């Protein structure tokens, strides 16, 4: 276990900060070296989450932008608890796992992890994944898709009836004002429903920032029949 600060050769005050949680020292050492070479600043590497959190008790150590977290730690800790504990510090979680632990990956994503990168991935892919998560973006890759595909109920946004109606009409092409009129609700209420719909899709790792994205989600979830989703990119 190590809790120190190491700055990469290109490190600056604006460098991406990273912490590593893995119960294999060799893995931690390899990841530290890769992060250093990429110019990332590694603020901590530990064998478990409680030790990592204890490091942040030191006012000189700020929580990192990204925590690279192994799913199966030697202390027998719970995946959901680990992810939520890290998220509570303000850090984003990038899962680092072997590819066949689909159920655990799904649990981590449900708890709020931003993505998953297999331990078999090339170093360059791991570094790129860290950069993606540090920007605040979800990491949508094959491993994420596999975890979602294994449980379609998990992938769905679990929309309420009124949210379902708003999405159906809005994704069909109606302006939000007409959606509100057709449903007999205020325009501001329709907008609130739309915001909640988008938030729910973000929660399951399927962000839909544009109207075209919402159309795709509606088709994927069976709310609308298959349509040409390339008809434009109009935002709300």
UniProtKB/TrEMBL annotation:
4-aspartylphosphate: residues bearing it: 70
Assigned keywords, A-Z: DNA-binding, Phosphoprotein, Transcription, Transcription regulation
InterPro entries: CheY-like_superfamily, NreC/VraR/RcsB-like_REC, Sig_transdc_resp-reg_C-effctor, Sig_transdc_resp-reg_receiver, Tscrpt_reg_LuxR_C, WalR-like, WH-like_DNA-bd_sf
GO biological process, one term: regulation of DNA-templated transcription
Record-level Gene Ontology MF annotations: DNA binding
Ranges in a coiled coil: none
Ranges where the Response regulatory domain occurs: 17-134
Keyword Transcription regulation among UniProt keywords: yes
Top-level taxon: Bacteria
Cross-referenced SUPFAM superfamilies: C-terminal effector domain of the bipartite response regulators, CheY-like
Protein name (record): Response regulator
Species annotation: Agromyces kandeliae
């Amino acid at each position: 276990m190590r809790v120190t600060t190491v700055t990469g050769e290109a490190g600056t005050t604006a460098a991406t900060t990273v912490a590593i949680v893995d119960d294999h020292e060799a893995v931690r050492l390899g990841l530290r070296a890769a992060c250093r070479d990429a110019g990332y600043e590694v603020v901590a590497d530990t064998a478990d989450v409680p030790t990592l959190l204890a490091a942040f008790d030191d006012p000189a150590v700020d929580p990192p932008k990204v925590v690279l977290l192994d799913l199966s730690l030697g202390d027998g800790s719970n995946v959901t608890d680990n992810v939520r504990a890290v998220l509570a510090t303000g850090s984003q979680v990038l899962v680092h796992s072997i590819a066949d632990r689909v159920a655990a990956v799904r649990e981590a994503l449900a708890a709020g992890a931003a993505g998953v990168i297999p331990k078999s991935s090339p170093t360059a892919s791991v570094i790129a994944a860290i950069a993606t998560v540090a920007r605040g973006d979800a990491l949508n890759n094959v491993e994420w898709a596999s975890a979602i595909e294994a449980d379609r109920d998990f992938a769905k946004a679990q929309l309420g009836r009124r949210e379902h109606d708003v999405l159906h009409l809005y994704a069909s092409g109606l302006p939000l004002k007409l959606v509100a009129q057709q449903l007999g609700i205020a325009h501001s209420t329709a907008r609130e429903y739309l915001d909640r719909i988008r938030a729910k899709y973000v929660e399951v790792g399927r962000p839909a920032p544009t109207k075209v994205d919402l159309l795709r989600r509606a088709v994927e979830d069976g709310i609308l029949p298959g349509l040409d989703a390339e008809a434009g990119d109009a935002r709300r």
